[in-house]
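Review this chain:
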Amino acid sequence: MFELSATRLDVKRYRDAVEHHSCGALMVFEGTVRNNFDGRPVRALEYQAYPELALPVMEQITAELHRSHPKARVAIAHRTGTLALGEVSMVIAVATPHRAGCYEASRFLIEALKERLPVWKKEIFTDGDAHWKANDPDASPGPGSA
């Protein structure tokens, strides 16, 4: 299950998608909007993504994971639009037969997604200033950036 969503992410839905009797371990990672970035107070985040680019990257990263963890069950979702403090911006649910594999798979997925997923994030500060930040430091700036 790979999704981009402009609406609230239902974490239980992604958890339920990977749960299976063959798996003895299940982890859910929730990325949430925090109230600061680089010491500056944040009031919201805005995410933009292009499904035609982002969804195939989610699939590719999961295919890479399956080379080392073939029995892993995965669901990934990322929000788009403007999110308030505390809202869930990303969910990664993974289930594996054993706990060590589950920890490894979850860590691999979050790191690979943060590095390669074509999603742009705008930090919106309480002073009204805002700037776009790409997940990949070598990626081109996001929409609306100078």
Remarks:
- Residues 51-68 form the longest helix (18 residues).
- The beta strands are 2-5, 25-32, 36-37, 40-49, 73-79, 81-84, 88-96, 119-125, 130-134.
- DSSP finds three helices and nine strands in the chain.
